[in-house]
Specification:
334 residues, alpha/beta, 3-stranded antiparallel sheet, 8-stranded mixed sheet, TIM Barrel, 8 helices
């Protein structure tokens, strides 16, 4: 382990520290860690144990993040670590998010940068587990990426305090933020988080960079149309052009309820399209639709998708080539 002092903490009495990175605001006794398991009170200093520790690194389609309105069709070098500040019972990446003994390899930020450049990546995506518990490393990599004209993408649960969020936003180009539920009681039960803090992150990030949202619709947890309508209304109140990805749950980790009913997902999709310009379905067979980008003004298919195969058809400078409508797409014209 490369010892690295963490940011955002203060000293308390009795040799305790308070971590101020996320809204858990953990009070950490000497030689103990916070909820994420990766930030330790080491002799009166808060130390991150995961600086440079990479569990996975891969060139991924940007659509896999998922980001459908940010350089569609391009690939991005994606990296992740271990640990998380949420404890989601249906975690899809539990083997690294909740196993602090997961295998890692150490990489200096400069090595990650050179890998991205060598692979002709559009930038770096910090993903797979919660990137903001990796804050010090993500910040160093993000700074290097920005200095070299590469893009920074954060795939996050949005549970971060305002000060570190504002600091990382200096380097942010895009974020996909999980909006897991619209019920605070459910947030606390399934993950240990709080709804209001995630909503604050969504609002703040939308003012600074490109934002897309993802909701995993899980059987018996949030598969309720009234709750989905509340999410739709919230997104619309922030900006109806924010893309919303609704994804089908499959049994994982500590939750084994049946996979989400596809008909319900499609009903949510149709309901959302009444209020939001861009809605997408994930983890369902392509025959159901819900993956193409369609101009909300004239109905033209602008970007078609089959799996991760993306084809740009009627896009020009982020607008529909047919009618000129702004589609909230950042792209390299091809």
């Amino acid at each position: 382990m490369k010892e690295k002092e963490a940011q955002y903490y203060k000293q308390l009495q009795d040799e305790k520290l308070q971590c101020l990175l996320c809204p858990h605001n953990c009070i950490i006794p000497k030689n103990k860690s916070g909820i994420c398991g990766t930030r330790i009170n080491f002799d009166g200093r808060l130390v991150t144990t995961i600086y440079g520790q990479v569990t996975a690194a891969s060139m991924d389609p940007i659509e896999k993040k998922p980001l459908y309105h940010f350089y569609p069709g391009k690939d991005i070098l994606s990296i992740g670590t271990k640990g998380c500040n949420f404890k989601c019972i249906f975690c899809q990446n539990w083997h690294i998010a909740h196993d602090l003994n997961a295998n890692t390899s150490y990489y200096e930020p400069e090595e990650i940068l050179q890998s991205a450049i060598g692979k002709k990546s559009i930038g770096l995506a910090y993903t797979y587990t919660e990137p903001f518990i990796w804050f010090e490393y993500v910040m160093d990599c993000s700074r290097l990426a920005k200095e070299n004209n590469l893009k920074n993408v954060y795939v996050t649960n949005g549970f971060i305090n305002p000060e570190p969020l504002q600091d990382i936003m200096e380097y942010a180009d895009a974020m996909n933020i999980d909006l897991k539920t619209f019920r605070d009681s459910t947030y606390k039960r399934i993950s240990g988080g709080r709804l209001d803090k995630v909503l604050d992150t969504i609002r703040a990030a939308n003012e600074r960079c490109h934002v897309e949202l993802t909701t995993l619709i899980a059987t018996g947890i949030n598969d309720d149309m009234e709750e989905m309508k509340d999410i739709i209304q919230f997104i619309s109140s922030v900006d109806r052009k924010i893309p919303w990805h609704i994804s089908r749950y499959h049994p994982a980790y500590k939750y084994n309820a049946p996979a989400t009913d596809i008909d319900f997902i499609m009903s949510v999709y149709e309901e959302a399209r009444k209020e939001l310009n861009f809605v997408y379905c994930g983890n369902i067979p392509g025959s159901y639709g819900g993956s193409d980008t369609v101009c909300p003004s004239c109905g033209t298919i602008v970007v078609s998708r089959t799996g991760y195969n993306t084809r740009i058809e009627n896009l020009e400078n982020g607008c529909c080539k047919k009618c000129g409508a702004d589609l909230n797409i950042i792209s390299m014209n091809v």
